[in-house]
Specification:
The protein is an alpha/beta fold. Helices cover 54% and strands 10% of the residues. It is built from 16 helices and 12 strands. It has an 8-stranded parallel β-barrel, surrounded by 6 helices. A two-stranded antiparallel sheet has the order 4-5. The radius of gyration is 22 Å and the shape is globular. The chain starts with a helix and ends in an 18-residue tail after the last helix.
Length: 427
């Protein structure tokens, strides 16, 4: 396995070296064009196409590497890679969590307010300990995730990485008579500055921004979390937030596709009864973010979308995730599904969290949030589903490849160790 991965890295290196040389030639050509002041738009388009070709070649090489790494994982590691686990406590890893992660080296860890009730240095040490413990097993660092939208959806102590609530930007624009362009620039700046602070702590994945716009159905639940009632403003604001975070080293999981209706889905059902035309309008901010390449991860809600799939909530629906989100809208990134212990998931699916997780992965999800008490049961359920083929191996490998691809791009899956060295399962 080691020699195989070294050869793949050699391929990546050779591709990148070739493309750098090519880009250098183009840069030199561009300089000469500028010196003569005799150039045309068409000549600059050639250079733009070269840059795009470079990006595509590097992406293909990374995807090939991700595929090789995923194929080298054993069942225990593969089943763990698609799980984002919660974490008990705010201090060093306790014995229970060490045992859980020794059995299930989760692909992601999500921190909540009770995990972050400490000074910054303690948080850094805690995150580093968790990451290194998991990396020791699989040589792939986990995503370290948090919900950091701004306003009251802020898991940190006041002053650590504060952001205003999303709706405040439109209010500011109206009250201060500011141009939308200036407000969007402010969102980008705020996002970048806050992203730098959370990245410094060790975070690399943010479950934000909310790309749902506020309407009659969703305003009770979303309230200040929605940027606006205008889909166009939401698209521009969400794009700026994502770009700012990306520049700071943070991957954003845009939420919650395709939307919500009613009160808080942690406690109540969410049912979307719109027509296909109304649904297209509802997801228009998501569609725009996907088309522009801005959305690299999307969190799917537990809403029932009656005109798409009257039997399954969105997070369990192939019609929503595979057909609508992937085929129709062209999304190629990571699909994340929220915690299946939420009432909106339990009430409609009638499934326990581990059974729902398996169904969700089979339906098209790539990663699912799991609480520590359900972690081992869920991990074992995924492995059992692999064995009896109720969860196709191809589907799980596809999910792992998307996850590892993003980790490669972010420097979370590198290091020269032999990925996926077979080990005796400790389950």
């Amino acid at each position: 396995m080691r020699s195989l991965h070294l050869s793949v890295f050699a391929l990546i290196f050779s591709n990148i070296l070739f493309l750098i040389l090519l880009a250098g030639c183009e840069k030199k050509q561009n300089t000469e064009i500028l010196e003569t002041e005799d150039y045309s738009i068409e000549e600059f388009n050639v250079i733009d196409e070269t840059i795009e070709a470079e990006r595509i070649a590097i992406e293909l090489a990374l995807r090939q590497t991700a595929s090789e790494i995923a194929a080298g994982l054993d069942d225990r590691q593969l089943a763990a890679q698609v799980i984002i686990s919660g974490l008990d406590g705010s201090g060093p890893l306790n014995d229970d969590m060490k045992f859980l992660f020794s059995q299930c080296p989760a692909g992601g860890i999500v921190f909540f307010r009770y995990n972050l009730n400490a000074d910054n240095e303690t948080i850094k040490k805690h995150i580093s300990e968790v990451s290194e413990f998991i990396e020791t097993d699989v040589s792939i660092l986990p995503f370290i995730a948090v919900d950091h939208e701004g306003g009251y959806v802020n898991r940190f102590r006041r002053g650590v990485a504060d952001l205003p609530h999303a709706n405040s930007y439109e209010t500011m624009m109206e009250e201060q008579e500011l141009d939308q362009e200036k407000v969007i620039e402010l969102i980008l700046t705020d996002s970048f500055n806050s992203g730098l602070k959370i990245n410094e702590l060790g975070f690399n994945l943010n479950f934000a921004p909310v790309a749902e716009y506020s309407n009659e159905d969703s305003s009770v639940f979303l309230a200040e979390r929605a940027y606006s009632e205008s889909p166009e403003f939401v698209r521009a604001a969400a794009s700026a937030f994502i770009y700012g975070m990306k520049q700071a080293g943070i991957l954003c999981a845009v939420k919650h596709f395709p939307g919500h209706a009613g009160d808080d889905p942690h406690f109540y059902d969410s049912v979307l009864n719109g027509s296909p035309e109304e649904l297209a309008e509802l997801v228009s901010p998501f569609a725009a973010l996907i088309k522009s390449g801005c959305a690299q991860a999307i969190m799917v809600s537990h809403s029932l979308v009656t005109s798409i799939d009257s039997d399954n909530i969105a997070s369990l629906s192939p019609a929503v995730m595979e057909t609508w989100l992937r085929q129709d809208l062209g999304f190629k990134g990571i699909i994340v599904c929220d915690d299946f212990s939420m009432a909106s998931a339990r009430n409609k699916s009638k499934l326990n969290p581990q059974a729902a997780t398996v169904r969700s992965l089979a339906a098209g999800a790539d990663m699912v949030l799991v609480w520590p008490p359900d972690l081992l049961r869920t991990h074992r359920a995924i492995q059992a589903a692999l064995k009896d083929e109720s969860l196709p191996r191809k589907r799980l490998l596809e999910a792992a490849e998307r996850i590892i691809f993003e980790k490669l791009r972010m420097g979370l899956a590198a290091g020269g160790k032999a990925w996926g060295t077979p080990e005796e399962s400790r389950d």
